[in-house]
Amino acid sequence: MPRKRIEMKVNITRLMFFVFLFTQPIFCSAEQSSVIARYSVKYVGNDRFSVKAAFALPTSRLDLNHHGAVGRPGGQASSVYELKAFDSHNNPVAIEYKDEGTWRTVDASARRIEYELVADHDSAIWAAGKEEVATKFDASYYFVGDAFFLVDYDWPKTGRIHLNFELPMSWRLASPWRTDGDTLVVYGPDALGRNAFVVGNARSRTQQVGQLELTWLADERVAPAARALAPLFERLPLAYSSFWKGSPDQQLSIFLLSDNLTDGGAFKNSFAMRLDTPLRDSEQPIWMHTMAHELMHIWMDQSNDGIGRREGGSLYWFTEGFTDYLTIKLMRQSDLLDRTMTAQRIANLIRRYAVGRRISVGTGLQAAGDRKHENWELIYGGGAVIALLLDAELSANSPVAFRDMLRHLQHQGGKPLDGNAILNLMDENSAGRASAVFREVDTGLTLGKIRERLYAAGIHVESFASDEVYVEFAECRQLLCADSLWGQRRSEAIGSTLK
Length: 499
What we know:
With about 500 residues, the protein is α+β, with helices and mostly antiparallel strands. It has three domains: about 200 residues, Immunoglobulin-like, CATH 2.60.40.3650; about 100 residues, Neutral Protease Domain 2 (Neutral Protease, domain 2, Orthogonal Bundle), CATH 1.10.390.10; about 130 residues, Neutral Protease, domain 2, CATH 1.10.390. Helix content is about 35%, strand content about 25%. It contains 13 helices and 22 strands. The strands form five sheets. An eight-stranded mixed beta sheet has the order 5-4-8-2-1-11-14-13. A five-stranded mixed beta sheet has the order 16-17-18-20-19, with helices on one face. α3 runs parallel beside α4 and α9 crosses α10. The longest helix has 22 residues. The N terminus and C terminus are likely disordered.
């Protein structure tokens, strides 16, 4: 179709759309949050989407997230074309791209915008991985919201955002957002930007897991992995919700993608994982741990009030290390790990910490977070060893003491916390033991000292240098039972040791 005819059609559609937008009530009933924005999305062919939006409040700044990409300095912003802004009287407003995914209006604020989003993200190699941005597969399109929707993140945190999609007849949309007729309802700019969705021919599966509606969708190239991960989908949401005494929302969406390595990304109440393809059955333990780890991030950050995080890296030892440990603990409780694999994973945590101390010489755990990827072993291993030692110590008096200490963190009203604030809050429910253990690990615990600390809990650690660690669980005697840390029935463990 000639370009001129397309423009005529778009102009008519634009007029009708904004007449609709501004004739709808911008505020809902007293029981509902205010509607702060309305977005209309239409697929127009050739990997292009037309996006139009109207805002309840004047807006002068709009953002996409910014991820670095090889040969693409504009990041996600390079996929936005023909952005136009208008004031409340439909007069054009100048808008300029600044940097790192930010646009600002000039001289006036905007009340509506329109642009084209081109799904060309696979032409770049993303430093964070495509699961954090966008990709095309099976004639379907995967996007993270902050690579697609221009958003003002200063909008009210719980304001309603309405989305309408006009898609080809055979297409479906899979997302963690709620539906109200033909409209998707999103609560707050973070829930729009920090969530993933898929549009296209790919079909999703939905099942009820306790109070949670779980939807998952897989690239056909990784369908066998999706089938293998099904028990994880069924069990972990229940275990995580029980541990945290809450779930991130009534809905959770999981997307599995094909790639040349395995990694994952967690969002508000959605999750995406890319798997090294062609698949190898021997990699299944890595798939399961990676997915379980990323899912744990969702529960830690989003259930109850959520654990608020201050900018900076001082908290990574907690957000990554404790997540890794809790992943093992609750996978074991859910019968997704046997004793042998549990022991291997605990050995991995201890080994990672020992290796991390050699790689990141003279670096403290909080400072290590400022260069996360350079200090990966110390951050993940050190944080996980702190969690392991605290769980072993606190559980000697109460099997739920460690859990309750962590639950306390999720009832702080979401206020931003750094590493010191986290320790202070954990100290309140551990008689100061959290800071004491942190200092020991941060200063440097030898493998011999770790062996001594864990022996009383029935966890036997043997090592040679920093690269060889072996773990066995002792037989249960009265209350001394290593398996109690992970919730195995005591009758299953009595008389059993790892060989």
